[in-house]
Amino acid sequence: xxxxxxxxxxxxxxxxxxxxxxxxxxxxxxxxxxxxxxxxxxxxxxxxxxxxxxxxxxxxxxxxxxxxxxxxxxxxxxxxxxxxxxxxxxxxxxxxxxxxxxxxxxxxxxxxxxxxxxxxxxxxxxxxxxxxxxxxxxxxxxxxxxxxxxxxxxxxxxxxxxxxxxxxxxxxxxxxxxxxxxxxxxxxxxxxxxxxxxxxxxxxxxxxxxxxxxxxxxxxxxxxxxxxxxxxxxxxxxxxxxxxxxxxxxxxxxxxxxxxxxxxxxxxxxxxxxxxxxxxxxxxxxxxxxxxxxxxxxxxxxxxxxxxxxxxxxxxxxxxxxxxxxxxxxxxxxxxxxxxxxxxxxxxxxxxxxxxxxxxxxxxxxxxxxxxxxxxxxxxxxxxxxxxxxxxxxxxxxxxxxxxxxxxxxxxxxxxxxxxxxxxxxxxxxxxxxxxxxxxxxxxxxxxxxxxxxxxxxxxxxxxxxxxxxxxxxxxxxxxxxxxxxxxxxxxxxxxxxxxxxxxxxxxxxxxxxxxxxxxxxxxxxxxxxxxxxxxxxxxxxxxxxxxxxxxxxxxxxxxxxxxxxxxxxxxxxxxxxxxxxxxxxxxxxxxxxxxxxxxxxxxxxxxxxxxxxxxxxxxxxxxxxxxxxxxxxxxxxxxx
Length: 641
Description:
By secondary structure, the protein is an alpha/beta fold. Helices cover 59% and strands 9% of the residues. The chain contains 26 helices and eight strands. It has helices at 5-11, 14-24, 27-30, 36-42, 52-77, 89-98, 104-137, 140-143, 151-164, 174-198, 208-217, 219-229, 236-241, 243-246, 248-276, 294-325, 348-365, 368-374, 377-397, 402-424, 432-463, 466-475, 499-508, 561-569, 605-616, 621-624, and strands spanning 335-336, 345-346, 481-491, 510-522, 534-537, 546-553, 587-596, 632-640. The strands form two sheets. The protein has a six-stranded mixed sheet, with helices on both faces. Strands 1-2 form a two-stranded antiparallel sheet. The longest helix has 34 residues, at 104-137.
């Protein structure tokens, strides 16, 4: 088994972790200045005007949105809700699953809401690379207007290189992420400071009174503007989701010491520039910088957006693997790209599915301004669900007072619902895309979970109790014939008999001298400590050569069966009553169910067909569990759902 990355993380310096967090966690929110303010003033035929009142109001709303949602909601509160150090919406789902809520229907509803949030995350993951890279490349329109026609092909080319390089892993170029993003934040802060120095009056926009006055004087316009202002907080979920890689303190330090000040200064600078030169609303970010620096800024912005996209892609790999381990998606090919870091994985199906969707978005929408209309719905939807689940954890698990829960809920949900309402106006202008993707993936998640549970129940009924099988073997007259060698049988349930073992005895009338039944149980925590991973049971008679091993895995642990057996061999002497397992000579038996439609499982026929498609295209058990192909035997049994 590979070591828990948190044990490695503990030995790393705080500075190194903080630098790593800057490179991985803040790419999305850190590149929002490229397009956010431009979108606010370009949206809805310039309903927001480049006047002092509107500019001060918008910048005030931007600052306080980032403050309340990122600094207060996520960094100060939600990031405290971790699942054994891991964060993200999957961590909240695991906490809710473990909570003892009085109303079981409420618990099921909350888990379903969490799964919808996971589905929306994929919609966000498709739009982020598209809008980020395209907004950076569009900077050439400022530096060299004659290259405008090349924006689209350059964007697609950059994205193609990005997705193609995933199979090589990011452990090499990942070391450059932190320093590059530090340079990025320093540069965008300097750009803002240079403009603020020419007219410091924009600093007054830090007062919340300007945002409130904007709402009072132009309530409709201010509300609509929230649909674009939300672009300044995209990536807030990443702070929480990537907490397991770096820990809360490094993320908090990076945010308050560098990222938050740099973003604030840049947004203030863009606001000041728009007041000085209203025509700059066409590209306020790039126009903050001198003419000679436009090409270098386009290159730096492109690198920064690639880093932001990389973080989203890696997050999609991580969330997908967690969903597989927790039983919400079928097995998929997972390739480890680093021998040192367990989080460095590559999933071909996810990678190329994202690439196809991202290119379709780039070509279909044609510009970052058009993509901005689709962006935000998924982000706010996920953040609203985060808040709901957190409030349940806050009240039910942490036992906080009701008044405190209601007060937090009033603040968080008022802000979230305001942004959600403003973004719902985008549905007919592109917002349908992430919502549609979310609904499709939510259907996939719940269909697989229901179908998989039904198949598991049918399997358990066919298998029968393991202890009953062992007793039958002991009582058989004449005694069961045994052949030399070790047979390892994989079984999903620790109390039942592997179908392959039962069928082998009935068909061949013999079993191996050494029979080891192993069960892998995925827990609701990310990692299980080495001393708690394996449990041995000699099944009542240490001398009969039959034993059972149960392995407890976290949902981020790798289900490598040979490595797990090696871990069992390291148990204290005497615990493995039949001695060490001959891993290199053992044969591995897998019970495969051939599923068909026509059974009595209560599912709509179309959902059964959908489940069947996923089931038949799942990665083979031998690949998923890292079994040696030349010593793996797959036995099939037909069942109907």
